[in-house]
């Protein structure tokens, strides 16, 4: 059998080169947006407002909106849940979550980090928005039933999550790094001052 020599400089199609360049540029801007949390979420809220206005003016695509709502609810569960479930950790024989004051403090680690949560919601909104341009997805349904069913699912899910948070004493929200004022200078009790 003959060996085929491999060229280091094989011809690259223009489409694959463009795709790689676009992917690299997109990842660059995505990485640059990571520290700008408020601006990212404002952009996502603007995209959500555009989607809601489009659905409102078209009076349709309620099934798409319901699917989007279920997907966002699923992402919210991952965002508010700990990476390691304390109930499963106890069953496996590992260290349990800190339920007494004597245990060491462990920061809350999410199953779904904030950046991935934001990115998934933004992508879902964009896909749902693009789906509103295809009439095949405009299935006629009685939307109040879908809305109340979604609200019922949301209520049950939040009740379960909040009960889990109370039971295992964790808070899924972080309000920034705690700031300490440092040690206060000791007051002399003798009343005399040194100069």
From TrEMBL:
Parts of the chain that traverse the membrane: 56-77, 117-136, 142-162
InterPro entries xrefs: Rer1
Compartments it resides in: Membrane
Principal location: membrane
GO biological process: protein retention in ER lumen; retrograde vesicle-mediated transport, Golgi to endoplasmic reticulum
Domain of life per record: Eukaryota
Pfam families: Rer1
Keyword Transmembrane: yes
Family: Belongs to the RER1 family.
Biological role stated in the UniProt entry: Involved in the retrieval of endoplasmic reticulum membrane proteins from the early Golgi compartment.
Protein name stated in the entry: Protein RER1
Organism: Erythranthe guttata (Yellow monkey flower)
Lineage, top ranks: Eukaryota, Viridiplantae, Streptophyta, Embryophyta, Tracheophyta
